[in-house]
Amino acid sequence: MNACGSSHIVDSHQSSSSSSLIFSGYTAATAASIPSRTTIPTLPTLALPDSMSPLRYLLVLDFEATCDDTDRIVPRGEMEIIEFPTILYDLQQDKVEAIFHEYVRPTLHPRLTQFCTGLTGIEQSTVDAADTFQNVWERYQQFLRSHKIIEQPSSAAFLTCGDWDLKTMLPQQLRLSGLDDSSTSLPYNRWINIKKSYQWFYGLRYAKGMDGMLRHARMTLEGRHHSGIDDCKNILRLVRRMRQDGWKPEDDLPSI
Questions:
Q1: Which of the residues 109, 216, 226, 250 is marked catalytic?
Q2: Is 226 a catalytic residue?
Q3: Closest CA to 103 of 235, 230, 7, 243
Q4: Chain segment 76-118, per-residue pLDDT in tens
Q5: Catalytic one among 64, 83, 97, 102?
Q6: 147 is known as an active-site residue
Q7: Of 25, 70, 87, 95, which has the maximum CB count within 10 A?
Q8: How far is the C-alpha of 144 from the C-alpha of 109, rounded, in Å?
């Protein structure tokens, strides 16, 4: 894992000469470790107003945050993001376009609890060497701008495993960091909750967590559960399976 706090991005447009770019212990080959392309029927492009773009990308996101098992050492209202991963998935090409992955140094409760490290696998030395959220957030905006998502926010939608990441954690982190609350505007104010989509699409009585969805799909967990980047990869595997079975992400996209 990277200890210098620099931007850790893998982009599929990189030339072969830059294929050894390292980010947080990964290389550009990380994108290749995402499950290989599947055959998905070509879907017609819906007619949209001139001010909107058709859905092109999913931003698969899964934060990890400071925590403890009692809520006394780290109260819920003071939890801070410590891992910030996003997989940019191209729906039209069925491929991983790019990956953003950085760890974040917490400031309110800089010492990770034993419970937090045991849950996420994130070591104290990792967050100590990481940058603060303000700087990571700025690099994340640059990442989105580089793929024209800030310019055309309707071309992308976040996809998360639950509502907590964007409904609760991001607004809280922006507030704690003294930053403008971007979570009230596109692209941050709409997302697909794969738990609900999976439940509705397969007609299940109850929504399932990531482990439960993987078991239902007869897929095994790859990597470590509650590693943000590994969770993103497993969530994307579920997305691809659902699309193979006929699911259309735009059908579950909240209206703007």
A1: 226
A2: yes
A3: 7
A4: 999 999 999 999 999 999 999 999 999 999 999 999 999 999 9
A5: 64
A6: no
A7: 87
A8: 29
